[in-house]
Amino acid sequence: MVISSAWTLRQHFQGFPKASDFQLKKETLPEPKDGEVVVEAVFLSVDPYMRPYSQTKMKEGDVMIGEQVAKVIKSCHPSFPVGCYVTSKCGWRTHYVCRGADLTPVPPNWPKDVSISLALGAIGMPGLTALLGLEEVCEIKKGETLLVNAAAGAVGSIVGQIGKLKGCTVVSCAGTDAKVAYLKELGFDHAFNYKTVPSLEDALKKAAPNGYDCYFENVGVISPGVVMPQMREFGRIAVCGSISMYNDTTPQKGIALHHSLQV
Ligand SMILES: NC(=O)C1=CN([C@@H]2O[C@H](COP(=O)(O)OP(=O)(O)OC[C@H]3O[C@@H](n4cnc5c(N)ncnc54)[C@H](OP(=O)(O)O)[C@@H]3O)[C@@H](O)[C@H]2O)C=CC1
Ligand SMILES: CCCCCC(=O)/C=C/[C@H]1[C@H](O)CC(=O)[C@@H]1CCCCCCC(=O)O
């Protein structure tokens, strides 16, 4: 018998999420049927999308959505033997009975010195988002100048690193000096703290006097009025997210790049 603990949404978030919006519940799991497995969570992910998606895709009392890296502890599916690792969208819970068809295997040749948590990060959804945004949306090319914000985050840090691998000049910003130091460690060409620079406009101009070919927008805090005049002719903008707005209780006024983002 396996008892699962699950974090549920006690009530929809109003503004910034609070601990009291969640409730931990226990549940006794049934035995797996043919084609099913029981998984045990190893790593859970907490991602920005959960804030807006909870509003539209969850009802109060539901288990929090999310992906996890998990270990198979009981199996009735030949492709997922006991002991193998998988990624699974089974939310914030310790254990779950899943259909094998809903699981993605973590490759068995995963390097021993690389944490499997990366299957939720650089090698998972955030890394793929970075790759797709740069290659498919921005169609980035060698020699171009790329601007990325939330650059120390799961998506932004991969955006900048792919940009460097592609031979681009990477201008990055983040919200603390410690993060800016990390961006420099990653080898990004320019990094600044957008909260403390005297003028965002000047910081962007100083880093790239000839302007930007690509802008990977994660936050929604640099106003279009500042960034648009600094885009080069035929420049491309990937509006990946607008995290600074997810906790807003009233929509922000003015022109924004993110207005067509929907969940
Ligand atoms: N379109 C898609 O398919 C996907 C879009 N996304 C989007 O990409 C963006 C980044 O995601 P991800 O890298 O996973 O995020 P992380 O949680 O790794 O990083 C988020 C960072 O955003 C910055 N930030 C700025 N304003 C706020 C705010 N008001 N509240 C919280 N954080 C803020 C902070 O960095 P700092 O201190 O530097 O300001 C924070 O650390 C999000 O907008 C997300 O929704 C993510 C995955 C897929
Ligand atoms: C205005 C909201 C913008 C949110 C942008 C964002 O962070 C999107 C992330 C999704 C991306 O499109 C690809 C994904 O896998 C992200 C999460 C989608 C999860 C849906 C979860 C539903 C569930 O588990 O039931």
Automatic annotation (TrEMBL):
GO terms for molecular function: 15-oxoprostaglandin 13-reductase [NAD(P)+] activity. It catalyses: 13,14-dihydro-15-oxo-prostaglandin F1alpha + NADP(+) = 15-oxoprostaglandin F1alpha + NADPH + H(+); 13,14-dihydro-15-oxo-prostaglandin E1 + NADP(+) = 15-oxoprostaglandin E1 + NADPH + H(+); 13,14-dihydro-15-oxo-PGF2alpha + NADP(+) = 15-oxoprostaglandin F2alpha + NADPH + H(+). It comes from the Eukaryota. InterPro entries: ADH-like_C, ADH_N_2, ER, GroES-like_sf, MDR_fam, NAD(P)-bd_dom_sf. Its EC number is 1.3.1.48. Keywords: Oxidoreductase. It is an enzyme of class 1 (oxidoreductase). Residues 18-239 form the Enoyl reductase (ER) domain. Belongs to the NADP-dependent oxidoreductase L4BD family. This is 15-oxoprostaglandin 13-reductase. It comes from Umbra pygmaea.
